[in-house]
Structure formats: C-alpha cells, structure tokens
Amino acid sequence: MAYTEDRAAWFEGQGLWEHVPESDWQNWGWQLKNRITTLDQLERYMVLTTEERRGIAFAGHKLSLAITPYFFNLINRDDPNCPIRLQVIPREGESITSAEEMLDSLGEDDHSPVPGLVHRYPDRVLFLVTDRCASYCRYCTRSRLVSNAQDYNFHPEFEQGLRYIESHPEVRDVLLSGGDPLLLGDKKIEHVLSRLRAIKHVEFIRIGSRIPVFLPQRITPELCEIFKKYGPIWMSIHVNHPRECTAELRAACERLSFAGVPLGNQSVLLRGVNDDADVMKALVQRLLRMRVRPYYLYQMDLITGGSHFKVDVRKGIEIIRALRGHTTGYAVPQYVIDAPGGGGKVPINPDYVERITDDEVVFRNYEGRAFRYPLTSTPLPRVRPPLAAEAERARFVE
Ligand SMILES: *Cc1c(COP(=O)(O)O)cnc(C)c1O
Ligand code: SF4
Question: NCBIfam families recorded for this chain (predicted)?
C-alpha cells in the first residue's frame, strides 16, 4: 500500500506524559532520567510481541535498551510493524549472527591510531568522543562499543585524540561522533570545540548526532551559542522515517540553523522502516522543510545480529531512481555502501548512461526517455558574413 501522510501535520505535544509539567518535559535531563530501559517499563505502556520480549532479554548482552519519552510517543503501540518501533525496540533477530557479519564491520579498530579516533581518509578523521546515546538504534554500526553492553570498555580519551589531530597537519576535517557527542555537557563540548578551533590546520568541524531526533530538548539556546562561538560547525542528523519529523524536531533544527549550523541528514536503509520510495520521498521532502539537506542514504553495515534489517541493494537503487528528477534535486541523498573491512564510503548509483563512445554519450532521463549528447564538434561552412561585418553594414545603412 502506498504511503500517505497529512503533509500539513507535524506531531506535537507530550502524548503519554501529558500529566508532566512542561518545564520537566522540555528539560533534557528529565527526558534522560525518564527513559524507558527495561521490559517492565515497556510493558506498562504496550503489549509486546514474543519476538520483542525475546529480543529485550538478549539486548543486555548486545546493545542496551533505552528510549526517551519524547521518542516513545512516536511509536504506534497498536502496530507491531510500526517503523519507529522497529528502530528502537529489540527483536529476536538481534541474537542471530550470520556468517557475513562482523563486530567491527568497517574495520574501524584497525584504522585507529589512538583509541577513539579513526583515520581512514587522507584529510579527515572520525573522533569518537563518547559511547552513550539518548536512545539506542537496534541496527547501530557501532553497537560493539555503544552503550557498553558488550564490555568493550571504550573510554573516550579526548586528550590523546586531540594531540593526534594537533600533530597531524594533513587533518583538515574532524567529524565528532560516538555514541552521541551532544550527550556530553556544554562544558565538555565547549572544551573539545575550542581545542579543535585552536588548531590552525583544522578547517572543518562537524558533528554526527541523533540527539535532535531523540532529544530535541538538548538543543538549548546555550548550546547554540557555543556552536555560534566556535563555528562554522556543520551537523549531520539521523532521521529515517517522515514520522520522526515532529514540530519539536523542526524547532530544534531551526535553532541550529539560526545559530549558523548547516544541517545534513544521514538515513540508514532499513527493512520495514524506509525501504519504500513513497516513504523516502515523504521523508526527504519533510527534511527540506526543516532546513535539512539529505546527505547520505546508507546501505546497512554488516553488523552482528543485523540481518533482519537488511535491504536488497537493488531496492536502494530503485528508491534513488524514484527520487531523482521526480522531486527537488536538493532532496536526493547519495546512496552509499561503507565498504566492509574498511574501504570507505562508495557511491551506488542508478545507471542513466546507456553508452559512451568517442562520438557521443547516450543516456536516459528520469522518465526513461533516451537522449544523445554529441562529443564531437563539426564546424559548419560559413554561409553568412561574420557578425562584426554584419554590424558594420547595419551602421552604414543608417
Ligand atoms: C564517514 C566517515 C568520514 C566522513 O566521510 P565523508 O564522506 O567526508 O562525510 C570520515 N571518516 C570515517 C572513518 C568515516 O566513516
Ligand atoms: S544514535 Fe547513532 S551511535 Fe547512537 S545507537 Fe543510534 S546509530 Fe548508534
């Protein structure tokens, strides 16, 4: 069935927590303290499937369960296939490991010169500053370390990472990630940003965060002031489904934008969540309305216990084809596979080019119509006088 939505509606309000004072609801500390983290708490609010109950029993060994009240409100509790529910409530599939899957599927640990820093590309580094998130995504690429349910004991060491960046002048771009960097307090964030800003060769600072989606209350005016002070700082948020685009997320994006933070979005292609062209189109169009430019659409990494989320790559290509030309160019993300073992992100594109020869390129447009662009230039014989002479003659007549 085609996905439909009320384009004018943006979810808002406190939902199940209507009885809570608004000052609590808007307080990010309150949201974190009142997260749903156990089977008992979940069952107080909804009827779980057997699959989910088994998944939750296993989650403690893999990736903790945590959902902020704000995000929990977005779940349709009557629908076991709700796309929001699938993202944050564990299912039994997590306990099944497939032969192709790996704990560290991107070989990040092998490209880590100091703990918490991944230097894969020549000019930029990934700096993991925490192992905690506001809520946990069941398909998380870094579930080996995030939430520390697997006793990975990742202790982010800012100092070592900062010193590495300071002593490597080829690093012009630093991407803060984790876990979620915005879960750190303002003081710590300001410390890291000010240190990075003080490094002459660091031109570009960006933050990868799902906090605006899980905990928009964290995007306080004070935090925005820090971004202003140490900017330009770019941010990639992580929205997978149009229903995550609420009035509160939109307001948080507005605060960030007005603080001069350009916003991009990274989605993961997930079975049952967004592996559908209509869902994806609704998502990217909502993102533009929130001042967010779709950046990447990721093929899911081969993490252990992730196969129940896996989508055929041909489906991903079909989704991109359904977007390009059919909606605003700004709305089309780049579909990528992060090469297993650590080859970096590789674009996966629909093929529009039919053939290229020395003479021409033949390609199809978004409607499937074929066109030809000649690669040769064949000068025509001069049958008319050159333009200058023509102009001269015109003057003479006057
Ligand atoms: C994704 C990633 C980056 C950033 O890649 P861009 O394509 O520049 O956004 C940098 N380092 C690592 C290790 C990454 O995984
Ligand atoms: S917010 Fe990011 S790092 Fe945290 S669990 Fe989700 S995908 Fe993983």
Answer: KamA family radical SAM protein (TIGR00238)
